[in-house]
From TrEMBL:
Originating organism: Indibacter alkaliphilus (strain CCUG 57479 / KCTC 22604 / LW1)
All residue ranges annotated as the NusG-like N-terminal domain in the record: 2-88
Keyword list, A-Z: Transcription, Transcription antitermination, Transcription regulation
Entry annotated with the keyword Manganese: no
Listed SUPFAM superfamilies: N-utilization substance G protein NusG, N-terminal domain (SSF82679)
CDD domains listed in its UniProt record: NGN_SP_UpxY
Protein name as catalogued: Transcriptional activator RfaH
One GO term of the biological process aspect: DNA-templated transcription elongation
Source species, domain of life: Bacteria
């Protein structure tokens, strides 16, 4: 679901109050002002949150203040598989630094992570700039989650 700018937390809370299942992936970011620094929680995907709903409840979900519309491509509502949600959750639970990217990234090598908190995960490795990134694609919303992982911790499997 698309939300108004920086309203993801409020929309998620309101949807939960209506009894809907919501997932809002959050990351911690260090913000600096002229007089202080503070860690703040922000949405991993700006303006997006994930709602598990049926066609019957679509209209009800959109009545929540701050909800804009459901993501759709080519006239079809976007669907994000539970496997993709689980992968995002696992990555965020480890606390590793992540980036998001919505650009078209060329296909990379299929790899397995050999060590660290993401050990055993399989996915794609792409080179961007002069860094290697383990990438999880979220095709339902045309976004990518990227983790910078040194090549020595990756084994090419496909």
């Amino acid at each position: 679901m698309y939300t108004t700018s920086r309203a993801e937390k409020k929309v998620a809370q309101r949807l939960r109050e209506k009894g809907l299942e919501v997932y809002l992936p959050m990351v911690e970011e260090l913000r600096q002002w002229s007089d202080r620094k503070k860690k703040v929680q922000k949405a991993l995907f700006n303006g997006y949150l994930f709602v598990k709903t049926s066609k019957v409840n679509l209209w009800e979900a959109l009545q929540v203040p701050g909800a804009v519309k459901f993501v759709h491509f080519a006239g079809e509502h976007a669907t994000v598989r539970q496997e993709e949600i689980d992968t995002i959750q696992r990555i965020l639970e480890t606390g590793v630094a992540v980036e998001t990217d919505n650009s078209e990234i060329e296909k990379g090598e299929i790899v397995k992570i050999l060590g660290g908190p993401l050990e055993g995960m399989e996915g794609e490795c792409v080179n961007k700039g002069n860094k290697d990134y383990f990438i999880i694609r979220v095709p339902g919303i045309h976004q990518n989650v990227m983790v910078n992982i040194p090549r020595k911790y990756l084994e090419v499997i496909g």
